[in-house]
What we know:
20 helices, Rossmann fold, five-stranded parallel beta sheet
Amino acid sequence: MRLDTFNDNWRELQQHLSEIENSHLRDLFACDSQRAENLSVSACGLNLDYSKNRITLKTRALLMALAESAQLTQKRDAMFAGAAINNTENRSVLHTALRQQDNKPVFVDGVDIVPQIKAVRLKVETVVNQVRNKEWLGYSGKCITDVLNLGIGGSFLGPKIVTTSLKPYVQGGPKQHFVANIDGNHLHDVLTKLNPETTLVLIASKSFNTQETLTNAESTRQWFYDFGVTFEQLSCHFIAISSNVSKAVTFGISSNNVFPMWDWVGGRYSLWSAIGMPIAMAIGNAGFAELLKGAADLDNHFNEAPLEKNLPVLMGMLGVWNHNFFGCQTHALLPYSHYLRGFPAYVQQMDMESNGKSCQLNNEMVSSTTGPVIWGAEGTNGQHAFHQLLHQGTSVVPVDFIQPLVADHNMDGHQDMLVANCFAQSKTLMQGKTHQQAYDELVASGMDGALAKVIAKHKEMPGNRPSNTLTFNRLTPYQLGTLIALYEHKVFVQGVIWNLNSFDQWGVELGKILGDDILARIEQPENTELSDSSTELLLTQYRYANQ
């Protein structure tokens, strides 16, 4: 990164902020009839209207200059070429290679990984066909009706959210169940619905040692034993996605049923790998191939489109603008689609685990804020929960509205109403309502002028609150692939600007270690080594409740 140039561009944006921060979006729209056309872009079936951000064409140009000075294009190219951009773990970052549509070589440590990817994909397709065609049989000779997926983090969220989002395309395959939490209530509730004769279990754990996943797997194995299943019979009921083949085999899984997890694929980017097997089992291999193709097309767009017409670059840089210059500390994703209701949680993990950091690539602490809090919920439900804060709260929250334009049902009026609400919310955030407008409305309704003046203050809405609106025709496997890849690359763009390694997650490690220490204290109360007084008090409460 050319720090002198980068800092100059940053200072230019700070100067520009002083020129624009008192402008209101109402006025920017009023004085430019072409604003929406000038500040919109489409690619891969996605349409981004970013005109409701507090920007001008000059802002966009300055943001693109900042991206160039941060060497965004060079770092993007390095990622796709297999450079070890995950510098703290000395790893390449190549989830994009999992979905590329040609056989162009991609090298890691001098080895072309594409043949490996193709071989594993073929093996996944074979298993998926066997299960969906009722050829994969359990220990009693019955076909598989249910698949229990055990994982956590990306190996759980990705397949779960995609399978939920593509429900209209789920047909003909076994029912999918997902369990991640160590809270035994969840696993217990799921197992009570299942029949061991017809249940296949997928365990996703790179080390085959993840505490939550392995504990759930061991409890599930015991469930099989409780029904009289022998160790030798387990192999036709368990599949593992792991790099620790020996431990999976010791657990009772046939080595033929162990699929690899590569170091160059992070968990939160892993749904494109064998981790995505539940997706393929739910929507079929053809549907999974479409999901991959959508992501690959967005990859190509990210690689080829000019920065000012590049969807991930625009969304990433607008996020930097709102977060670092306007001081917005959170960012809301509001999909107006019931099927996309889990998408905010998926992006939350992807974004906050990637960029929730304070140490730069050069080992120096950052001098600006990074990683906004990502949150959200499906529309229109959120309108009756937290939109009050979005419209009149003291914190300005940028919003991404996500709207499929064509419904997957034929219920009269519902889609029109849904879309109208989505577009109305973005318009309301933009224009707001002045005190005079509120007063005039109240007086016109028959309210006394003196009272109207008081109530109008409570109905006043500042507006001028930024949002993007992403639309697309239908939520298909292809389109979902583009949407996920868009947010993946947006996160990468922001990591480049903040000079972060977006592909490690050291911040989660200490909690695991201390969790093991406290578990040992619970299991061996005679251990008298004292912790802090708060933890000791909590341990005492736990022991007392369970004595």
